[in-house]
Amino acid sequence: xxxxxxxxxxxxxxxxxxxxxxxxxxxxxxxxxxxxxxxxxxxxxxxxxxxxxxxxxxxxxxxxxxxxxxxxxxxxxxxxxxxxxxxxxxxxxxxxxxxxxxxxxxxxxxxxxxxxxxxxxxxxxxxxxxxxxxxxxxxxxxxxxxxxxxxxxxxxxxxxxxxxxxxxxxxxxxxxxxxxxxxxxxxxxxxxxxxxxxxxxxxxxxxxxxxxxxxxxxxxxxxxxxxxxxxxxxxxxxxxxxxxxxxxxxxxxxxxxxxxxxxxxxxxxxxxxxxxxxxxxxxxxxxxxxxxxxxxxxxxxxxxxxxx
Length: 308
Hints:
CATH class: Mainly Alpha
Protein name: Nucleoside ABC transporter membrane protein
Pfam families: BPD_transp_2 (PF02653)
Membrane topology: Multi-pass membrane protein
Subcellular location: Cell membrane
Number of strands: 0
Strand content: under 5%
GO molecular function, one term: transmembrane transporter activity
């Protein structure tokens, strides 16, 4: 069934693909912020992961190795941020912005000889029996492994933060790092681990763009998705389930505007292209207004820990 040239089944299936890189990056950043660290370098880690994954996949002809390289590249770049903020006690906001500039520059340098190349195709991991269910099957059960991994990570991160000792320590460090240190927890080690995890997740999200969603390498391929991931963490009130909703909301609007352009909608292309970002800003404004100044952010978010 088509609506004005738009097939709703294809639209919904595409929504999951478009939302996956945002979801991965936002989940990683949420964990980082839960530890009390604000890393604005998500965009830089994503695009650096995108180029690392693309190069590895092209050279080895293995998308799996590409994703592994992307996670490693994102984590490695995030360690520079960790070094600056946790060891040299640099202010986190400018350090994050510098990380974005560095990641973008490195990606442009490393990827200049790979433009125009095609990576190996990421195979779908169709789920037997379920994939044959009308409408639901093609929408949910005919995707690649990274889509399912992103959904598993939502549940895993929620469970770890809520029910495990690791999650308790992470949240304690984010809420009061002085008290956590007094209890014997290694605040900087916890934050380094969170920063590395966030970098790996951002790298995976970037690689999903360059290997699956837009299977090629071009400069600026992430197109601001890292900044949207940062906004979604705030929109989600630092909760994994809401991060999923926010990522799918943005991904849905992105896919819809692309389909409207293809269907020849009589709306300026520029307005359609900016609609996902406008929608994200609108949601953030509404959420902020409803809170009346209240915040669910970790109490130590962005603050420097001075160990004695």
